[in-house]
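Lecture 7 notes. Example A: sequence first, then its structure tokens.
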Amino acid sequence: MSWLLLRPTGRFAAQRYTGTMLEKLPEVIGHALQGMRAGLDKIVFNTLGMRQGMASIALSSVAFADHAPLPSRHTADGEGLSPPLQWAGLPAGTESLVLVVEDADSPTPNPLVHAIVVGLRPTEGKLDEAAIPSRDNAGAAGLHVGRNSGLQAAWLPPDPPPGHGAHRYAFQLFALDGMPAFSAAPGRDEVFDALRKHALASGLLIGTCERPDGSIKIKKTAPAGPLATG
């Protein structure tokens, strides 16, 4: 099936597609899109071209292990809260941190961005659960959040299409040698340019999410008819 048949156009169409449309695709379409995946080679971590410091930051979460499923409370099937993260092993000279979360297996030409946070203080050592704003959650005060693929400065909960297989969500943390002046809600391109100039080291943590066939149920309503009597 052609990707052009599925891709909406325009700002608001993009919001609808990335925010809710994937989870509502029929499973037959999920199967048809099996071979269409952005790929891990296209995430920021692998396209930045770092020669030193790559994967030297230890990034982890108490909510899930590396390459293990994300708990439903952090996906569109649950509360949709951003997961807790913690890090160690920052290099000398680290002035700030940047977090980028991407879906490496989205049926799109490039990975979908699920979260961007810039200007994190290295001394914090962690990001608490629900720190990034999301639906019905204001997030932590003072956090500088960038735009996700839904054009919102928020956490976009994972919502892979039924039948498309496991999706890998790449939590990528970067140590910077300064504090770049980002816009109010920077997007991926702006952040990528800053990382090319200032990144010292990086860390990667993968969480997965999958919706098996039939996981999205469509309620069927019987047609109205005359009431039985007697």
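Example B, a different protein, same format:
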Amino acid sequence: MASTAPGRPETLTPEQELKLKEFWNVTLSLFGQSAAQLEAAASTSLTEDTAALSLENATAETTTAASAATDEAETEPAAGGKSKSKRSKIFSRSKKDKEKKEKDKDSKDSSVNSSRSNLTVPETTVSNRPSPPPGLTTDPEDKYNQGKDFKAALASQTPEELRTTFWGFVKYDNPDALLLRFLRARKWDVEKALVMMVSTMHWRGQEVYVEDIAREGEATAFAAEKTDKTAEGFMKQLRMGKSYIHGTDKEERPVCYVNVRLHKAADQTPESLERYTIYLIETTRLMLKQPVDTAAIVFDMTGFGMANMDYTPVKFMIKCFEAHYPECLGICLVHNAPWIFQGIWKIIRGWLDPVVASKVHFTTKTTDLTEFISLAQLPKSLGGDEDWEYKYIEPTATENPSITSPTPADTAEKESLETERLRIIEEYEKNTREWIKEESKGAKVDTDVKDERSGLRERLRTNYWGLDRFLRARTWYDRVGIVGKNGEVEFYPQKDNKVEETKEKVNGNGTSAPAAVSAPAPTSDDDELD
């Protein structure tokens, strides 16, 4: 049974809980909550500096800082040289679509929030843009230029748009746990955590369009692959089994296995790999069940040669984990690396944050792997006893009817669920303000408020899974029964009409389905890394 790690909602020290309250206070301020609400929240338990920061944010008119942020966003491209107006479809269906997208690249896509919950979003104007926190300084350790993305987000989005993006990011997660990821990643510095979180929201919604990748999914790529290189490359990753999520390690973390020998840079575009990487990380999020909040990665280097080395996707993966999915990687195992990887690792290690680098372990034998993953749950391809092989099942054109061809009943159900979600969010925000100021009222209120917040979190989770079929296309993991319709996860379903003794069952049952395309076996016998 996995234990709950420090710094999580269940294990916070009083000092850490205060930091979480401060973070919520400035976050609600950024979302444009009223000054009266924030004054009540800030008047008791928070430090004077934090209270002043929150109140000034909530009541500020157009400020010099906001104008500066606007000017910077209008004169400089977004990080990575990507323009938010570039968005059309993640997988274009034809060259004509691509040409139209390029012609329209300077106009804002009116459907930018189409995959988010149905919250009312006002038009962005200079006067209703949020302001950066007073005294915000440039962080010399800002490796990914997130301060710039933070300012771009404030310059281009209203408080309500930021609020919508945030709750779309939460999905089925515990909102406290999400904020705590950013706090832990920034060593409990509230200001730095806020910059990191808002820049991530900007990245998700304005640069890589995470929700669109989830909504369009495998079926859209499958339909577009004959005319679109990005879609073709995306489907190629899935069919060859370059990576897949299967089972758990000894800490009950879901494990993503990567067959590095199957990668060749010329086989797909960089955009295909970025889409696929985001798809895989977001799919892994589905499989995190409390108290487990991190995943494991196994890079199987068997058969690796220089033809398989590609630094571009490595850099993108590092950026994802360090800048936008903080505290999501539990452990990384590099297995059976040949001696030629020594020089490559020296380069990669130099790019890694020391905390991330400390999670990387090299293994050479099956017994090394079983220190982290039990033999019964380790695939036979790696010397384990788990008789399982990845075989890809193709998507169908009719597997996402609630997205592609919703009926009037579907539309009505979605609108009802979105309305319900908005009510829950409003209750949660109100309850959070009560929680922030509750210390002056005694322990009884503290317990009551925490119980209410817990109940609201469960309602948010249940509501999301009602909305899931409208927001997320089915994946291979849905087709084979690993992910159930209510979020239940079953890595080891029934096999040959018998229930496996060692199967892992997480919050429900799943059913398996026949499979089709399997990954090729290793062919190289390169020397191992000493």
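Note on Example B: The chain has three domains: 14-211, 232-397, 401-489. The domain at 232-397 is CATH 3.40.525.10 (Phosphatidylinositol Transfer Protein Sec14p).
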